[in-house]
Amino acid sequence: MSDHRAGRIRLVAVIHSTFEVNMKKNAIALGVLGLFSGLVSAQSSVTLYGVVDVALERVKGATSLTRVSSGQQQGSRLGFRGTEDLGGGLKAMFVLESGFNADVGTFGQGGRMFGRQSFLSLGGGWGAVRLGRQYTPMDDVVSIVGTKTYDVLSVVPIIGNGDYNRVDNAVTYVSPTVGNTVFQLQYSLGEERVSTNTSADFAKQVSAHALYANGPLTAGISLMQVTDADGVLAGKQGRDALLLAGAYDFGSFKLSAYYDAEDKAAKKLKVYGLSAAFKSGETTVSVGAAQAKDVNGSAAAASDDARLYTLQANHNLSKRTAIYGHLTVVDNDTASALGFNSPVAGSNSNGIQFGLRHRF
User: Fold this and answer.
1) Range of the domain at 27
2) b or e along 170-190 (b: 16 or more beta carbons within 10 Å of the residue's beta carbon)?
3) What is the domain-level CATH number for residue 325?
4) Which candidate among 40, 180, 243, 275 keeps its CA 20 to 30 Å from the CA of 154?
């Protein structure tokens, strides 16, 4: 073999060897970059989400009214949710959620920018601590049986799904799951009024819940104590509440039950009821009945009880979009005024609606 040919062979071998080394280095570099990129994306993320919900409804109370309303199956909202992995099992998380009225394009919750939720939390294997405006533990238990506008525990103004379904200036501890149960403890500083105010403790509250979920069974109990629920009268007008709720899903059939008791006036307001939901494909139809006793908490002889009946249907057009219909009828006794559109004591009230809801 000539020296010239041998030289060419050696040159090709060197080039081939160099190419293989460079390819290996590039593969390692790309792998490291890919791993680094994955770690960065895993460490921090922000999600934009929302709901647009609008319905046409007719309500009957003092008078009859036909209107377009927002947030009837789910509150219309625009939200941002973010997490950051801090390492060692520790995570930071925030939620900023703005409610809006899709029928007129205005902010909800009295015009607040993030009136639904606005909190920051730090969590790990030991649970999580949240600071800011949040849902109360009792509202979480109400959600087992429904918080829609036409649901019983919304039509009856129970404290845990009314004035105190969300609270400001709150500190909340959420436990890890223990025996299929999550525990939650919350304290709200209320309006943070100065100590010389005659109602300095207005809206301060402490609440807790135990929420059990295991397969088809979901059940919860919640307690709430509001130090001063009035805010105008001098001193403390306290209010205590207890809520029990549970649901069992048989597959095509789901049964739910609830009991609420809370301070109202001379007597305690009590609400208890049952509902059954039947599912066939993408369609769910539910019926319910409930009794509300001592609606005003009055010690007078006049009866202030009421009976409530619900009929609801939902059909999923896709994973994100659904059409629905709700009907609620309230049968008021002499001194009870529950229902829709400024209901009149002793008169029946009802509402019916058909709506469209889209999640994104």
Assistant:
1) 3-359
2) bebbbeeeeeeebbbebbbeb
3) 2.40.160.10
4) 180
